[in-house]
Amino acid sequence: MGKARELALAPLRSEGAVEQVVRRLGEAIGTGVLAPGERLPAEQQLAARLGVAPMTLRQALAILRDAGFVETRRGRAGGSFVRPDAPGALPEPSATPPTAARLRELTDFRRAISGEASALAAARASGATVHDLRAADAAVAASAGDAAAFRLADARFHVAVAEASRSERLIAAETQVQAELGEILRFAPGPAAARRISQAGHAAIVAAIAAGDEQAARVEAVRHAEATHDWIVGLRLGLGRAQVAGRPAACE
Predict the structure, then answer these.
(1) Contact call for residues 211 and 203 (beta carbons, < 8 A)
(2) For residues 25 and 68, what is the distance between their CA atoms, to the nearest angstrom?
(3) CATH label of the domain that carries residue 66
(4) Cα separation, 251 vs 243, whole angstroms
(5) Disulfide check for 216: which of 95, 139, 208, 245 has CB 3.0–4.6 Å away?
(6) Taking the alpha carbons of 185, 191, 196, 201 in that order, is the dihedral positive or negative?
(7) 66 and 151 share one domain
(8) Residues 109, 204: one domain?
């Protein structure tokens, strides 16, 4: 998570700085870019990296502490740490189950981002990167018995694919996609069906990247996004595929 972590701690825009810090760090924690138990940079250093005042950072960290994302430890080895049991998404005051329209909109965005990231990864990934992707996929399978750990590992896999594209904008966008998907998946009952989708989809994506097949990588990423969409729609909203208008064809 080198480049994704670097982007998560990059300077922010000036407006709404507290909210931006909360969102940026919350998304990074929720997608595993900042790992459970990881120590955040010292406050002065982190504030400088984010381009905000130390007081702004302290206010944001207080919100994240209250939300269960970070904890503060005192003493020489103290500081702010990502909680091992941090939630997968920032709390929403009026969180409601996702609508078919919201799922469709997110999936359309995911098709564009994940599809292109996978294609570029196929063109640019080294053997070492492919090895890392296989390890990330294995971590997803190993966490299948724990819904929270599974979601975190799944998000990490997709961000790792984006990192393999070597596009900073695609990495940032994939992190955003996974954070929003995490908000929606709070309403999911458990990882059993998602595990089946992930095992098939991830293996196909990695195989295409390893083969250097850009078109196949894009197709498999789009197919995986649609499979996730259909699962959520079917289980969360009770809607069949025929009831969800506007589903685009796979780019095969």
Answers:
(1) no
(2) 12
(3) 1.10.10.10
(4) 22
(5) 208
(6) positive
(7) no
(8) yes
Q: Which residues pair with 82 in a beta bridge?
A: 70
Spatial CA neighbour of 178 closest among 22, 29, 3: 29
What is this structure's pTM? Answer: 0.79
Domain that holds residue 58: 2-79
Nearest to 141 by CA among 216, 194, 206: 194
Q: Is the dihedral of CA 85, 118, 97, 8 positive or negative?
A: positive
Q: Which amino acid is at 151?
A: R
pLDDT, one tens digit per residue, over 20-77 is 899 899 989 988 899 999 999 999 999 999 999 999 999 999 999 999 999 999 888 8
Beta bridge partners of 80: 72
Q: Report strand pairing: 70-73 vs 79-82.
A: antiparallel
The answer to the question of residue 247 being in a domain is no
Q: At 70, which helix (H) or strand (E)?
A: strand 70-73
Domain co-membership, 63 together with 171 = no
| Tens digit of each residue's pLDDT (9 = 90 or more) over 45-58 | 999 999 999 999 99
Quick one: 107 and 223 in the same domain? Answer: yes
